Amino acid sequence: MRLLVGRSCFKMINGVRIMSDSPAETIAIGRGLGILLQPGDILCLAGGLGAGKTCLARGIAMGLGVDETRVSSPTFVLAQEYRGRIPLYHLDLYRLGSAEEVEDAGLDEYIGGDGVAIIEWPDVYSPLLGLDRLTVKIDTASDESQRELVFIARGDRYRSILEEMKLC
């Protein structure tokens, strides 16, 4: 699968940096990623409010066979569960302040289990630092509709996903 032919892209040692020109393009990138995911995969989405984390999550959900119209930010409920070809657990840690709060809420049980875990605001949960995962950092570019997505793989599984996506 080749995404974004002709797009601005830069390969790094354990990752890839690309530009997305629209929400539709960000969704398409997420869909391509979602197709490749397996149970136990961990995706960390980092970026400011309005950066496009939920937009990317919506695309990932589509790639997993979830009805994307059901996908919304779980900020106020902390977690959303979706059924597709494999379960998708969409966690938002924005309102939590520590790993202990994540564990007290039982959210740690979603990570590395029978489905795919998408974690927004992952810095709150420090145990993620020791786990293999794919982190996507999303920043707003100079054009308000553009986003810079930096995919950083930790572990062979996630490096192989980036290779298979052929973002560059």
| Largest sheet, strands/sense/barrel | 8 strands, mixed
CATH fold name, please?
A: Rossmann fold
CATH H level, superfamily name: P-loop containing nucleotide triphosphate hydrolases
Q: What average pLDDT do the residues reach?
A: 87
Overall outline = globular
Helix/strand/pairing category: alpha/beta
Number of strands: 8
- Counting DSSP H or I runs of 4 or more residues, the number of helices is 4
Q: Report how far the terminal alpha carbons are from each other.
A: 11 Å
Largest sheet: spatial strand order: 1-2-8-7-3-6-5-4
Reading off the top of the CATH hierarchy, the class is best stated as Alpha Beta
Q: What CATH architecture would you give?
A: 3-Layer(aba) Sandwich
* Number of separate structural domains: 1
Low-confidence spans: 1-6
Strand residues, percent: 25-35%
Order of helices and strands: EEHEHEEHEEEH
The Cα radius of gyration reads 15 Å
Helix content: 10-25%
Report on the structure:
This protein is an alpha/beta fold. The protein has a single domain, classed as Rossmann fold (3-Layer(aba) Sandwich). It has four helices and eight strands, in the order ββαβαββαβββα. It has an eight-stranded mixed sheet with strand order 1-2-8-7-3-6-5-4. Helix 1 crosses helix 2. The longest helix is centred in the N-terminal third of the chain and has 14 residues. The termini are close together. The N terminus is likely disordered.
